[in-house]
Amino acid sequence: MKNTPQRLIVEKAVKEMHDHPTADEVYELVVQSLPTISKATVYRILNALADEGAIHKVRVPGSADRYDDKLSPHSHIRCTSCGRIDDVSSLFTPDKSWISESEGYLVTGCVMSFEGICPACQNKR
């Protein structure tokens, strides 16, 4: 994919938004500086950036995908009350060799996510 002005603005937006934004949230930021960009273009660019490994797509079951500029291995935690997603600061790397041994898979990655109630929602209760 070419480094078009649209692509550069979308990538910059994800890197500035450290709260794991949805495509709609990225669009809302991008459209402020590039009013002619379409939502479909933002979605297409985000997916291309994720496919290329420039950003990470965080799949959220039952909700919109999120995007993350942090590429190093890490996990996420989602608040079951407000939907907020944060990085888990401690790195937990499970021993994946047992999967290869028992199931015959060549393990190429691991995605772990946790659920809980964020500090802001705890304070509201």
What does this structure look like?
The chain is an alpha+beta fold. It is built from 5 helices and 5 strands. The strands form 2 sheets. The protein has a 3-stranded mixed β-sheet with strand order 4-3-5, with no helix packed on it. A two-stranded antiparallel ribbon has the order 1-2. A hairpin with a 7-residue loop joins strand 1 (56-58) and strand 2. Helix 2 packs across helix 3 (39-52). The chain starts with a helix and ends with a helix.
Layout of strands and helices, then pairs:
Layout: H1 5-16, H2 23-33, H3 39-52, E1 56-58, E2 66-68, E3 75-79, E4 85-88, H4 97-103, E5 113-116, H5 119-124
Helix pairs in contact: 1-2, 1-3, 2-3
Low-confidence segments, ≥5 residues, pLDDT <50? Answer: none
Round the mean pLDDT to the nearest integer and report it. 89
Structural class: alpha+beta
Tell me the series of helices and strands, N- to C-terminal: HHHEEEEHEH
**Spatial gap, N to C terminus:** 47 Å
The portion of residues forming beta strands comes to 15-25%
> For the CA atoms, what is the radius of gyration?
17 Å
The residue fraction in helices comes out at 40-55%
Global shape:
flat
